[in-house]
Sequence to fold (125 residues):
Amino acid sequence: MSNPQQLRYSKEHEWLSGAEDGVSTVGITEHAANALGDVVFVQLPEVGVTVTAGETCGELESTKSVSDLYSPVTGEITEVNEDVVNDPSLVNSAPFEGGWLFKVRVTEEPSDLLSADEYTAETAG
Fold:
């Protein structure tokens, strides 16, 4: 399992892309997708809503359990991935590509986001 180097990661297993025009993309990591099992339902925050770093902003339901989705940053939701809502299995099959979850206009970024190497070390145990 490899975590893309250009992304940053939260301890709650979300990834965050670099900002383009102040907007970053958020998804869950391959590690989290594998731990969840087959994702069958995704509840994402609504466009226009403000999310807060480290707080719940949605849910992922799998054949094993329901897991909270946390925002890795504070900001306003600018887009949600309707493809994932319609086909939740994308979270498992392409967590870093087509399985992204939402885009957020970042207003505050916590200092505890991890690099790919730090996240890999964190999840290796």
Observations:
- The chain has a mean pLDDT of 96.
- The beta strands are 8-9, 14-16, 23-28, 39-43, 50-51, 56-62, 66-70, 74-80, 102-108.
- Residues 116-123 form the longest helix (8 residues).
